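Please produce the structure of this protein holding S-adenosylmethionine.
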Amino acid sequence: MSRSAHRNQSAALLHKTVDPYLPSEHTAALLLHLRQRFATRSPGRVAEIGTGSGVLLTMLMRAGAVSGFGVDVEPSGVDRTASLLHSEGLSLRAEVAQGSMWAPCRGRSFDLVVANLPHFPATSVADDMRPPSWSSGGADGRRWLDEFLTGLRDHLLPGGSAVITHNAFVDLDRSHALARAQDLVLEVLHTTSALIPAAKVACISPSVLARFDGHGIYRIGPHAFGDFHIVELRRPGHA
Ligand SMILES: C[S@@+](CC[C@H](N)C(=O)[O-])C[C@H]1O[C@@H](n2cnc3c(N)ncnc32)[C@H](O)[C@@H]1O
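Below is the modeled complex.
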């Protein structure tokens, strides 16, 4: 390989490792579920809260969504999603808005809402690569999850559903209770696990560790793995 080709490859690798919106294992697991679920049918009118790179919304548009609406609190996340949709020729049916959670969705309802929310149980997360808003969900991880669940029903059409990632060490019982209070049916569709880097483990709130170490957080020697679910929340009724 020539020196300049080698330099370009190194620059590409460097760019990749510092991409603040690089999709994660959570993204990949949710993406796989959505790819399988909408392999042969349209997801209808869709929204994503917290789009980041835009891969989830873009996949749903590829799957024939009637319309797409993405929200991210970070202007750079909005730009990333908008430019991915544009590069895939999908911008005509999709819109991306900057704002927090449901605020940009006022007056809109959807057949499907997807979200891989920041819900890591730490007030701040040691991660040089990501913006602070990427994963921190406050001490118990529920800062944005609770807001998502309490606002969801108002934005789901009858028969509509949300599909989200849900860390197993972020009180699933409370999510069940919030869903019930909204007359939504919560179902865990799939559970998998991802490595939690040591620097991130050190940020987890002590109360969460006391409750979930060994129950959603699994350790072997110096390594820790965090289980997470793909969760569906259904609004009863006919689409
Ligand atoms: C864990 S990342 C997921 C990104 C992308 N959906 C994925 O799966 O790769 C969370 C995303 O939510 C965004 N976010 C954080 N707080 C938010 C809020 N209050 N409202 C909307 N988006 C938010 C972040 O900027 C980030 O893009």
